[in-house]
Model the fold of this input.
Amino acid sequence: MNDLFARHRQVLPDWLALYYDEPLEITHGEGRHVWDADGNRYLDFFGGILTTMTAHALPEVTKAVSEQAGRIIHSSTLYLNRPMVELAERIAQLSGIPDARVFFTTSGTEANDTALLLATTYRRTNTILAMRNSYHGRSFSSVGITGNKGWSPTSLSPLQTLYVHGGVRTRGPFAELNDRDFIAACVADLRDLLGHTRPPAALIAEPIQGVGGFTSPPDGLYAAFRKVLQEQGILWIADEVQTGWGRTGEHFWGWQAHGQSGPPDILTFAKGIGNGMSIGGVVARSEIMNCLDSNSISTFGGTQITMAAGLANLSYLLEHDLQGNARRVGGLLIERLRAVAAQLPGVREVRGRGLMIGVELVKPGTDEADPKSAAAVLEAAREGGLLIGKGGGHNTSVLRIAPPLSLTVAEAEEGAAILEQALRTAY
Done:
């Protein structure tokens, strides 16, 4: 392992982060478990950053990929592609967007990049509204709208970005308000902002902020925003890269918690739909998707082998009601972790929905982020046989918990017990 780590450092960028003091090589997985190169077994509560959505080595997906690889792996979007059309039909119907068109990419970053291209072209302006504490990818345009300085390495951007309040409920200038007044204050802030600028192309927002630490506004905030946006024809882009496909339990898409004013104009997705295969994409109303007046293709977006995986994975997800499982098992896990948190002074909040849970850590007796303890808990959880993630806004002190959606009650209890012990070693 030390040899592989040294080789990694020799040929890969310094900024390519690795978890753990002694980085981990994962060699194989099954169900909700993975194994490292030394044979150690771990319960996986992070799923390759919310990407292994159903299960590791899911037989239905493995079979679909193997059979497709035996026929043809790739041909590009220059040729008709049956698996791509079939998956696009299913996603268009599930999206809730009327007269929807779907364009496939290879990642969430590329999906958001495409959404920004569509919105700015359709609206003929390069001004974008984004949320504070947000994360939308690592391309030049998506970095430019990311409201989290830890993931935004440059201030240069092809876009003019204006940041809006509301993505974080329990911090910031409106944190002490009740939900109704919080929404009203955020809407008033949005109206004031729009009064000082030319009409933007779109608001892009994660229904639950992923890298930002699984923070979210009260239900209905983006519906209230949309009423204001519609007055000026401003589009709403829902970044569902982490919240889509039923992970939140209560809804299939995160935007549905804010759906009183209708669906978004543009929806982006990635991560879980491929269960580890590289699939991203954009859904938009036809007049928006078709607004480009020059040719475009996607060499690897929609390639046959990834589309076969996506179709098999989506079918499994729907047929086994993994959204319902996320609601049931996730609800139990959240309550179990809240009971633990009530005994520990360093746990500020346990938040989230379904199997998308954040545990925010602070220095005991303060409201100050505690990244050192978060790193220590990450290490201790690994030692106990549990893999989790971390994130957060002003400082990385939120533990991110996002297991595959097929997680069982017994596995949830096992993971909670390991995490409880890890938290107790830090506090």
